[in-house]
Fold:
Amino acid sequence: MADDIDTKSETSGKSSPTRQSETAHNQQIEPTTAFLDICKQLDPEIDEDFIEKAWKQYDTVGKQYVLEV
Structure:
């Protein structure tokens, strides 16, 4: 029984940074005004869901670029 508690506390201790990074990763970063303006110029009737997906992809690529440089 005590071994089970130790294992659980070790596991939760190790997963804590992962949870923090997942939380930070899942935080919604709002598209910039410039990004929204460009999207609206390309298509005035552009779908908001599409803009959100495009922004997430743009943000992800930007982060990958920073990590690779």
Observations:
- Confidence is low (pLDDT under 50) at residues 7-13.
- The helical segments are 2-26, 33-42, 48-68.
- The longest helix spans residues 2-26.
